Structures are given as C-alpha cells and as structure tokens.
From TrEMBL:
The keyword Metal-binding applies. The lineage of its organism: Eukaryota, Viridiplantae, Streptophyta, Embryophyta, Tracheophyta. Residues 137-153 have a biased composition (Low complexity). SMART domains: ZnF_PMZ. It comes from Nicotiana sylvestris. This is Uncharacterized protein LOC104216241 isoform X1. Keywords: Membrane, Metal-binding, Transmembrane, Transmembrane helix, Zinc, Zinc-finger. Residues 127-191 are annotated as: Disordered. The chain crosses the membrane at residues 197-216.
Length: 221
C-alpha cells in the first residue's frame, strides 16, 4: 500500500495489480515485500528469459555467416541508380543546417517596436527632412532678380555659373591642345625612321647585289 492506493499481489499466479511483474518479468517492490513476509527468495521469481541457461540455449545452434557481396545471387530487378546531382543557382552554402527550435545568433538588435524620433526637434511626428525647425541651407553669394509684374524673385548662384563656365572653357582648350599635339606627333613619327629600319633596308640591298654578282659570274664561266 502506497498512501491511499492499494496493490494486490498473488504469488501463486505471478500477479500484481501494478502490472510491472507481468510486463518486465522482474518482481516489483510490492512482490518483494510479500515474499519477504512469507520468507521466500525473490531471485527465484525472475522470469526464465533472464537466466544464463536460456541465453546459452538460444546461441547453442550454428549461426550461418553472412556471405560476401560477390557471393550474392544476381537479381532480375532493375538497377536503381543514384539521382543526378543538379547544380543549383547561386553560391553553395557552407554553414551547417541548424536544428529546429535552435536559437539563432543575433548580432544586431531589431528596431521593431522602437519609436523613431527626429534628430533635430526629437519629435515622433516628423523626421530630419520634414522637420519645421530645420535650418535653411547656406550657399555662396546669391543674387536676386525680380520679374517685375508678378513680383516673383529668382535666385541663382553667380559664382557657381562662372566656375562651371571656366571649367568648360578649360576642358575645351585642353582638348584642342591635345588634338594639336597629337597631330604634330603623328606627323613627326611618320617622317622619322628608326636605325633598325635603315639597317634592315641596307642589308636587303647588299644581299640583292651579291646574288646578282654570283649569277653574272656563273653565266660568264
């Protein structure tokens, strides 16, 4: 009896209401208590399949050895080949496949749920671009020109226009100078001949003269 729960043991039938003795073949705590009360050895109530005699009887027969793969009989069934490896798109993955439920490594915290504020006025309603207290952009000297009747003023940067004009003029001048220099260099290259070319022409001329003299001597003889 364990607390308010009672267990019934029947030693002659090999029965206990907890069913551990019937399932495992080893006497449970209730059976051992009943055997001690009757002065019975509990080791004699262990099932036969746990004993040494049963183990030796099971392995007493001859066990056929497993033959080699060469000795296997040929089968008439179709041969199953492995699947062809198909090259997937993109770079192959090198990281191992993580198990389900494993916590992912987080190096950077997510900004989900965080209220974003303006860096100027610290308000949640706007950001830095649409901030009403954003200072106006300062530029170089500006000149204003009124249109007269409408009263609308047009602002433009004079220094910017002058600088762009000067840079364009310089680029055009540099381009003209480079083209003139390129033409002169090509003309000078066409007139000038390297010493290697001159010596090559002299060598061919001398060789031709020697061949002509040899033919004349052979004809005279």
């Amino acid at each position: 009896m364990e607390g308010r729960i009672k267990f019934i043991v029947h030693l002659e039938r090999g029965y206990c209401s907890c069913r551990s003795w019937q399932l495992k073949g080893i006497p449970c705590a209730h059976v051992i208590t009943a055997m001690q009360f009757r002065m019975i050895d509990a080791s004699e109530s262990i099932a036969l399949w746990y004993r040494k005699e049963t183990y030796l009887r099971a392995y007493s027969n001859f066990i056929q050895p497993v033959p080699n793969i060469i000795m296997w009989p040929a089968t008439s069934n179709p041969k199953i080949d492995p699947l062809t490896v198909r090259k997937m798109h993109g770079r192959p993955k090198k990281n191992r496949r993580k198990e389900e439920g494993k916590i992912k490594r987080v190096e950077k915290l997510s900004k989900r749920g965080i209220a974003m504020t303006c860096s100027i006025c610290k308000s949640i309603k706007n950001n830095k671009r649409s901030c009403p207290s954003r200072p106006e952009a300062t530029s170089a000297t500006r000149t204003t020109a009124s249109t007269g009747n409408t009263g609308v003023t047009i602002e433009y940067n004079a220094t910017q226009q002058s600088s762009t004009g000067s840079t364009r003029k310089r680029s055009v001048d540099n381009q003209q100078e480079s083209t003139s220099k390129g033409g002169e260099s090509r003309a000078s290259r066409s007139k000038y001949k390297s010493p290697r070319v001159v010596w090559g022409m002299v060598y061919l001329y001398l060789r031709l003269v020697i061949v002509v003299l040899i033919k004349v001597c052979n004809a005279a003889n």
